[in-house]
């Protein structure tokens, strides 16, 4: 079964699907190795890996190239975080076929203005576009896909923008009516209460998607029990883990004046070579080099 079809089936399955963020193919491979169902091609993580703000500073081409590289590296579906769709509905119409051709199985698009500001910045500029405008972008994305199993997930930032439950629910219903295959509801509250209230009130026919970055106490078993959530995304844990590990190791090397204390605790060079696909290359050498 094609990855797109597997993703769509899993999204609608009663069993909760889980996706781990990644900012490069190595992170994606490690997430697949850990057993995650899908890879979240995070715009936040990719921006962080370039040391620039998550504010549409990186070009669409940079993001697309990274999604293509991830999809070529893993067997599980890749979900591309395309922020606001890189512009209006016309931009979306051109972008979606490129992501589909790159091997991505779904895109997530949010209803903020372009350029966006990151959702988890406490004093961020959270400006939403008109409902009708975003419906047009969803319709354009759905019309542009070649494979009907390719999924278009609409993300509403109404709670992030402080517009309340009624606005969030109204927008989610409008986006489902425009053809969205799922609704991602986002919150930066430190408890899951706001999101749980939305889930309880949701009467739509498409599954919901949660990103519990701000409320990590909500576990998968709790999300599964809600009965309306098809996918949980761990949105920035790869880059946070990488930054934490590098800071610790780099500081220890400077403190110790060498690598003698840290080296034994790191993955071996042989391990890294294995993650690079060295065995596959050696097999190609055996078969084709003369």
Automatic annotation (TrEMBL):
Keywords: Hydrolase, Pyruvate. The keyword Lyase does not apply. Pfam families: PEP_mutase. GO terms for molecular function: phosphonopyruvate hydrolase activity. Its EC number is 3.11.1.3. Transmembrane segments: none annotated. InterPro entries: ICL/PEPM, PPH, Pyrv/PenolPyrv_kinase-like_dom, Pyrv_kinase-like_dom_sf. Belongs to the isocitrate lyase/PEP mutase superfamily. PEP mutase family. This is Phosphonopyruvate hydrolase. The lineage of its organism: Bacteria, Pseudomonadati, Pseudomonadota, Betaproteobacteria, Burkholderiales.
């Amino acid at each position: 079964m094609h990855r797109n079809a597997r993703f769509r089936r899993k999204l609608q399955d009663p069993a909760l699907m889980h996706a781990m963020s990644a900012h490069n193919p190595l992170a994606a491979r490690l997430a697949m190795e850990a057993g995650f169902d899908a890879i979240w091609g995070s715009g936040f993580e990719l921006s962080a890996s370039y040391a620039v703000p998550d504010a549409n500073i990186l070009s669409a081409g940079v993001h697309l190239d990274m999604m293509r590289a991830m999809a070529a590296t893993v067997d599980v579906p890749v979900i591309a975080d395309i922020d606001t769709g890189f512009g209006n509905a016309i931009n979306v119409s051109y972008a979606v076929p490129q992501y589909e051709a790159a091997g991505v199985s779904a895109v997530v698009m949010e209803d903020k203005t372009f350029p966006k500001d990151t959702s988890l910045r406490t004093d961020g500029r959270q400006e939403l576009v008109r409902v009708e405008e975003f419906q047009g972008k969803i319709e354009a994305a759905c019309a542009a896909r070649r494979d009907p199993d390719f999924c278009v997930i609409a993300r509403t930032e109404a709670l992030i923008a402080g517009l309340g439950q009624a606005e969030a629910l109204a927008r989610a219903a409008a986006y489902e009516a425009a053809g969205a295959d799922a609704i991602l509801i986002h919150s930066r509250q430190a408890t899951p209460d706001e999101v749980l209230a939305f889930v309880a009130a949701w009467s739509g026919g498409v599954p919901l998607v949660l990103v519990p970055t701000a409320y990590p106490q909500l576990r998968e078993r709790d999300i599964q029990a809600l009965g309306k959530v098809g996918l949980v995304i761990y949105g920035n844990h790869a880059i946070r883990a990488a930054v934490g590990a590098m800071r610790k190791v780099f500081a220890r090397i400077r403190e110790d004046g060498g690598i003698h204390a840290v080296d034994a605790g790191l993955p071996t060079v042989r391990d890294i070579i294995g993650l690079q696909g060295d065995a596959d290359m050696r097999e190609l050498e055996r078969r084709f080099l003369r």
